[in-house]
């Protein structure tokens, strides 16, 4: 026992001796090491001879392309694919590297990067008070850096910012305005019909672009079986870059290049997957989901809910074509349009809902019969009656007139909880239900 005790005492002594020795491993203080790291990061940013290609992935979703050129005077020049103006004209602002909870890269004057984070909904179309949930202060983690790539994480919304070294040709393309040429792709929104297709080589794709969420959905037929692919995208001087590539047999599409736009014929062209094609309009889906209309109608019945639309019908390229957002009931304001299946055994409800400052309420509306679901996937609505007194010739009357069009509607499921209801007559009118 005595010998064991002395042995343990010896080990303890050695252990503490080792601990005391570890305190001298770092010859410099933590502050000195941190400042050295910040200087190293700044050196890497500044010494990229042709600047940096950049992509930011906001916390609210989507992806946006940028170009940065940093100098050693804490100034950065940038381009952004957010708008025609930011793609064509560079903007200079300031930046700094600072020791916060982690080493951080901060863009500290208002820049194109701040546009994505602006809390004013009118600036970027995001959420009131939050914008697109993007960032302009980023944490730096050493293990996310290589010689040609730097990745950062937003300090507030955890946006990802990825920089890759630009080539001389890429830097020249930005200054020559090629990014602005790539934004010609946004003209796809000028096609009036809801459905659009493009043929690239042997494959015809239905193309659906959501410019708010920066997503592209491609749908095609493998024999008679529909296939779908969805990816985020951003713009570069070369064109549209997919965050994830589409692989369809022998064809791989990583994005679209050589973008052209003919305003006289309303035709967008581009190359992708080794082929060139032009976008054309269609009046029905490339593959009709035959069960979608019945599924749309049945969902609120099973959940006890309803379908709501903020803007009502989009018609011939015009959002809220009937101006439902301007509706009032005495001093109460418009809240949303509702479709509620199964209000009674005889009818549904299609109506504007108003808000009086305390609660929402129904003043008047239409009572369609439960829809007829056709074998080719359409829902057809017919009138059964009304609730209250419908203002003659107003937004509610015009909305119901379109709803009761005998051609009916295709229901396009756009997410687990959203549908677009598209006119089967000409696909030039639709309403989004959430």
Automatic annotation (TrEMBL):
Query: Which branch of life, at top level?
Result: Bacteria
Pfam family for this entry, one: DUF4302
Which protein are we looking at? Uncharacterized protein DUF4302
Specify the species: Dyadobacter jiangsuensis
Q: What is the lineage of its organism?
A: Bacteria, Pseudomonadati, Bacteroidota, Cytophagia, Cytophagales
């Amino acid at each position: 026992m005595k010998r064991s005790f002395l042995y343990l005492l010896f080990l303890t002594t050695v252990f503490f001796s080792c601990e005391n020795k570890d305190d001298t491993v770092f010859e410099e203080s933590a502050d000195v090491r941190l400042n050295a790291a910040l200087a190293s990061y700044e050196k890497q940013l500044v010494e990229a001879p042709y600047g940096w290609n950049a992509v930011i992935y906001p916390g609210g979703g989507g992806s946006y392309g940028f170009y940065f050129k940093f100098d050693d005077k804490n100034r950065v020049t940038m381009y952004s694919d957010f708008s025609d103006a930011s793609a064509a004209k560079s903007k200079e602002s300031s930046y700094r590297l600072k020791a916060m909870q982690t080493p951080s890269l901060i863009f500290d004057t208002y820049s194109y990067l701040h546009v994505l984070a602006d809390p004013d909904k009118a600036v970027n179309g995001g959420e009131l008070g939050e914008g697109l949930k993007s960032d302009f202060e980023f944490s730096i983690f050493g293990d996310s850096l290589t010689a040609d790539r730097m990745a950062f994480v937003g300090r507030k919304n955890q946006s990802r910012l990825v920089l890759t070294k630009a080539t001389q040709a890429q830097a020249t393309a930005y200054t020559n305005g090629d990014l602005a040429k790539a934004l010609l792709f946004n003209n796809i929104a000028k096609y009036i019909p809801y459905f659009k297709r493009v043929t690239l080589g042997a494959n015809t794709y239905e193309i659906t672009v959501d410019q708010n969420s920066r997503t592209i959905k491609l749908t095609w037929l493998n024999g008679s079986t529909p296939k779908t692919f969805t990816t985020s995208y951003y713009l570069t001087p070369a064109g549209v870059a997919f965050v994830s590539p589409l692989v369809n047999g022998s064809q791989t599409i990583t994005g679209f290049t050589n973008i052209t736009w003919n305003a006289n014929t309303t035709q967008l062209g581009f190359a992708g997957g080794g082929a060139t094609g032009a976008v054309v309009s269609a009046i029905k889906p490339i593959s009709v989901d035959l069960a979608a209309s019945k599924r749309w109608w049945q969902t609120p019945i099973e959940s006890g809910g309803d379908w709501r639309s903020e803007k009502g019908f989009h018609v011939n390229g015009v959002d809220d074509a009937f101006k439902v957002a301007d509706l009032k009931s005495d001093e109460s304001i418009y809240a949303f349009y509702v479709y509620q299946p199964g209000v009674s055994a005889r009818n549904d409800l299609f109506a504007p809902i108003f808000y009086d400052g305390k609660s929402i309420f129904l003043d008047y509306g239409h009572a369609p019969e439960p829809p007829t679901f056709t074998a080719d996937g359409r829902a057809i609505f017919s009138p059964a009656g009304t609730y209250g007194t419908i203002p003659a010739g107003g937004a509610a009357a015009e909305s119901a007139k379109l709803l009761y069009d005998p051609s009916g509607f295709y229901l396009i499921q756009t997410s687990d909880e959203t549908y677009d209801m598209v006119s089967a007559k000409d696909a030039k009118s639709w309403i989004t239900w959430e």
